[in-house]
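Hi W., the adenosine monophosphate complex you wanted:
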Amino acid sequence: MYLIILGPPGAGKGTQSVLLAKLLSIKHLSTGEILRKAVTEGTELGLKAKAVMDAGNLVSDDIMIGIIRDAISTDDAKNGFILDGFPRTLKQAVELDKIMIELGYEGLKVINITIDDDELVRRMIGRGRVDDSAETIKNRLSVYKGQTAPVREHYMQKSAVFDIYGIGNINDINNEIVALLKGKKFKNQD
Ligand code: AMP
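Structure:
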C-alpha cells in the first residue's frame, strides 16, 4: 500500500503515520525527520536545510525530490510506504507521480487531515520543537496554505483522497483512517 498523509503542521501526521506504518507493515518516511537527523549529524544536507527549517520555510524542491527518490527506491519501500511531510508543493507532487510510474508503483492513496487553526497553534506551542516559535508557526501555516494546500487538489483529480477530521482521540482517528482505507468508497467519488 502506498500512502501519502497530508495536513497542516501540527495536525497529527507524524503520530498517525507511525501507527499506520506499524499496523499495515509499511515504511514510514518523514521528510521532516530525515532533515532533522541531517541537521543533528551536521551533514551537507543538514547545513543547507537548518536556516530554512528554523524560519519555517520550505527546503528546495530539487533537494526534497532527490531525498524521496532515494527513500522510496529501496527494497523495503517497494512493499509499501507512508509519506509524511511530502509532497509539500505541486512540483513535488508532479515529480512524485513520475517517480512512482518509473518504479512501477500503483494505487497511491491520500489521507488528508483537517483541523482548525487555533488547535494547530496550541499543539505546536505544546511540542516545543525549535521551529515551533510563535513567528515560525505563523510562517509555517502561511506556507502550508499557499504552497501545500493545493497538493490536495492535485490528488483530487487522480487519486483516492480521504479527508479526516484530526481532532479527537488518537486511536479513534486511526481506526477511522483504517476503515476508510479498507472501504471502497473514495471521498472524491461520492
Ligand atoms: P515537518 O516535520 O514535516 O513539519 O517538517 C519540518 C520542516 O522540514 C518544514 O517546516 C520544512 O522546513 C522542512 N521540510 C520537511 N518536508 C519538506 C518538504 N517536502 N519540502 C520542503 N521542506 C520540507
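The chain has one domain: 2-183.

W.
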